[in-house]
Amino acid sequence: MRLAIPCALIAALALVGPVSAQTSHSANETLPVAVPAAPGACQVGADLTVTFTVGSGVSIADVQLELDLDHTWHGDLEFDLTSPVGTTCDVKVAGCQGGVDDSSDFASTAQAGTYILADGMAQTLAAAAQAAGAEIPIGIYGPDNPLAVFGGENPVGTWTFIIRDWFVGDLGNLNGATLTITEGAAPTVWQLNSADASVDVNGVQNTSMGPTTVVAAIGSTNTLSYGSVQTSLYDLGVQANAPAAGTGPGASTPNFQAVNLDLGQPIYFLSSAGGTTPNPGTWGGGSTSINFALGGGPQRVCVQGLWINPANPDGVSLSQAADFQTEQPAVCGGTSVSPGDDSAHQVTLLGTVNFYGVAYTDIWCNSNGNMTFGAGDTDFSQSVSELLDQEPRIAPVWDDLSPNVAGDVTASDDGTTFACEWLRVPQFGTAGDENTFCVSIDYATGTISCDYGYNTGDDGIAGISPGGGAAGASTDLSGANSGGPTDAIFEEFNSGNPRDLGSGRNTTNVTYTPNAAGGYDAFGS
């Protein structure tokens, strides 16, 4: 079976979880206590430490921290909470640590209330501070880092809360502090496969730490396997995105299974041939497999399965969300030259390249889609005049590229062939863009081969030039061309002549072969 579109996965189990025991614990220390002042700018002051003692419990489902706090300049303060087993949550990050450095004040006394930090809130404390003006309103806010890090731990023992002041000049007091623990099984964040519900791509299993992404070449054949020991109604869903952690509304079932589809995105069902309305079929037990391929450009899908299971308190069993994506594989391969934006990288060759009759033992791989001899070139604004007049150049696609944003530039040399590749590199300022192409040079014959993978860019210059005042005009590289020792062979791409190089386009290879006249014969295919 060949899947023509990324279809999608399970629908919403937007169910309410079970009620769990909740206990609150006041600080052991006598409060209020002044927060020790910082000695200077971005110089941390002494710790203000308070502790909470939890005497009983088995497993944490949720943690909240309530603070009665007066202190000027929100951005000065750091909050850390550490559990009895040693897990620390950076509840609030100070501005000097890279957090939000906002001048709004904590003002519990003036507002006769407290600040509560809890997961799942629509607004974080940092965002509230930025929007507040003079005083942060009393309320419940999300922390800078999730308190869910304590999930599943035994809460019994001494908890430690620390406040630190990072900037001189603003003062305040901690008037009260309360730690609230909700008991119960911690919700599952990432669902795993079981005998009752199993889905995978190429046999890859997820772990409790998160999905294991299966990455394969565009158009390659892969295997989706799914099954269950149940003989019941079932369905599979697919989404065109990465799996989502099972922490959002409706994403955790009463029996703490995790829905790892993104419930904010459309879900398409295998039972309805990619429609959004499920039409469950009857599963006969065992497992089955489907071979599929995703062509075109890069794609990503996740698949999760659901089987009716009367023995599960939820009434259903969920599989893992299998995460699969396709990408353009390396054409030539090699080692990264650690490219930056508009950068040039000199490479010493293991052989000698004869280019337009001149022997070279080194070459420059330039981040903007070209190679030069004699000197590097960081210019991002390609032009025909520069191609003709500047350094001798091989340009698979000379364009303003950004390997500092995504992708890579690599080089390889086995003593027989030198190759430089631009792998999944985007054009500057173009979201979702990627371009892959490789130049290989045969030391013995001097033949230059430009191979093109998946490309989305539509402008640039492709070709070769001896530089130094070469002659030439833009030509069509998809056919045959020929030039002498002072002739450049190239094609300029623009809005009137969009680039047609790449897989799925007109031309996937252009080969330049030295000729008897001292120039090159070029052929595109």
Describe the overall structure.
With about 525 residues, the protein is mostly beta strands. It has helices at about 110, 125-130, 385-390; strands spanning about 20-25, 35, 50-55, 60-70, 75-80, 90, 105, 115, 140, 155-165, 170-185, 200, 215, 220-230, 235-240, 270, 280, 285-290, 300-310, 315-320, 320-325, 335, 345-355, 360-365, 370, 395-400, 410-415, 415-425, 435-440, 450-455, 460-465, 480-485, 490-495, 510-515, 520-525. The chain is flat and about 90 Å long.
Could you give a short account of the major beta sheet? Answer: 8 strands, antiparallel
Measured distance between first and last alpha carbons: 31 Å
Form type: flat
Q: How many structural units, i.e. domains?
A: 3
Low-confidence stretches: 1-19
> How many helices does DSSP assign?
3
Strand content: 35-45%
- The overall pLDDT, averaged over residues, is 90
Rounded radius of gyration (Å): 31 Å
The number of distinct β-strands equals 35
Structural class: mainly beta
Oligomer: single chain
Strand order of the largest sheet: 22-27-28-29-30-34-35-32
Question: How helix-rich are the residues, as a percent range?
Answer: under 10%
